[in-house]
Amino acid sequence: MTTELLEPFVRMLDEIASPAAVRAVEAGGDWQAMWAAIAASGFLDALVGEDQGGSGLTLAQVEPLLQALGASAVPLPVGETMIARALLAHAGIAAPAGPVVLAATQGQPVPCALVANHALVDTGAALAVTPLSEMEVTATGVHGSLAAVLSGPAQSLALPRPGNGLRSIAAVLRACLIAGAAARVCDMAAAHAAQRVQFGKPIGKQQALQQMLSVMAEDMVACRIAAQLGCAGGLDPALTHVATAKITTSAAAPRLAASAHAVHGAIGIAEEFDLQLLTRRLHEWRLADGSEGYWSRQLGAERLGAPMSSMDFARTP
């Protein structure tokens, strides 16, 4: 089932979210055509129950699609909208048209807020679907970033808040995106190392660089496993799973970005080279919805509050 979904999804992304198309959206270009193609595909309702017109898939089944979004550096809140539509459908509320971002924490940058129509806002007591036209949207000013800080009253439709809040599922989404981007960055670094010839042989023949690529691969696999763990609990994941997923992926993100740029050298930071589309996102997603530092504190507090040994805590599903 996953392969049957993933292959057409990746083909669609290859067609509509090429590096050139991503750059155009980042530069302020029209994103409506890209969104229309995604909306027409039906994938936005992948997490919505079959009885409500969706595909009825679990988050674990959709996780490869979320990784694909990260690998393609898609400049739209596709995963966010999938999650929002599922939560709204579960509450019996019709989803608004257009992209929806997840505003899980007040005062923090929300990825893709500059290319969205609505925000699902966690007020601390409930979730509110609010048009961005009714909120103050302040761009971060970071080069190429589509994130913005949202402020203002969260009004309009309200629905129940997940047990661990919106931040938990948003953090799991970031972990999946990081895992996808990590895989693509590793592929690009390995390919460049095999093709770039220096002193008569590919640089990938150098032992130091081989070790760097090996460490990158280890981080990439760890990110993938962590993302799968985070998705195993569905749309209201356990805090320990969320923390593990986000700590692992956020901690790996800067290492992967730095190593990829080290392998590529000066060309890696060039505007016309695709690597920076991914490494910029690795840094943004690392911080979004809680960095490894934030989630380490949450995991530590959870451990201290558990009446069991550390060994039993680590073995608890």
Q: From the alpha-carbon coordinates, what is the Rg to the nearest angstrom?
A: 20 Å
Task: Categorize the overall geometry.
Answer: globular
Strand neighbour order, sheet with most strands? 1-3-4-7
Largest sheet: 4 strands, mixed
* Weakly predicted, low-confidence segments: none
Beta-strand content bin: 5-15%
- Return the string of H and E elements: HHHHHEEEEEEEHEEHHHHH
Q: Give the termini separation.
A: 26 Å
Classify the secondary structure makeup into a structural class. alpha+beta
Total strand count, please?
A: 9
Helix content: 40-55%
Number of domains: 2
Mean pLDDT rating: 93
Q: Give the helix tally.
A: 11
Describe this structure in words.
With 317 residues, this protein is of the alpha+beta class. It folds into two domains: 2-159, no CATH class; 165-315, Butyryl-CoA Dehydrogenase, subunit A, domain 3 (Up-down Bundle). 55% of the residues lie in helices and 10% in strands. It has eleven helices and nine strands. It has helices spanning 2-16, 19-26, 32-41, 59-71, 78-90, 165-195, 207-231, 239-264, 275-287, 292-304, 310-315, and strands at residues 100-103, 109-110, 118-122, 127-131, 136-139, 148-151, 157-159, 197-198, 201-202. The strands form three sheets. Strands 1-3-4-7 form a four-stranded mixed β-sheet. Strands 2-6-5 form a three-stranded antiparallel β-sheet, with no helix packed on it. Helix 8 (239-264) packs antiparallel against helix 9 (275-287). The longest helix has 31 residues, at 165-195. The protein is globular, with a radius of gyration of 20 Å.
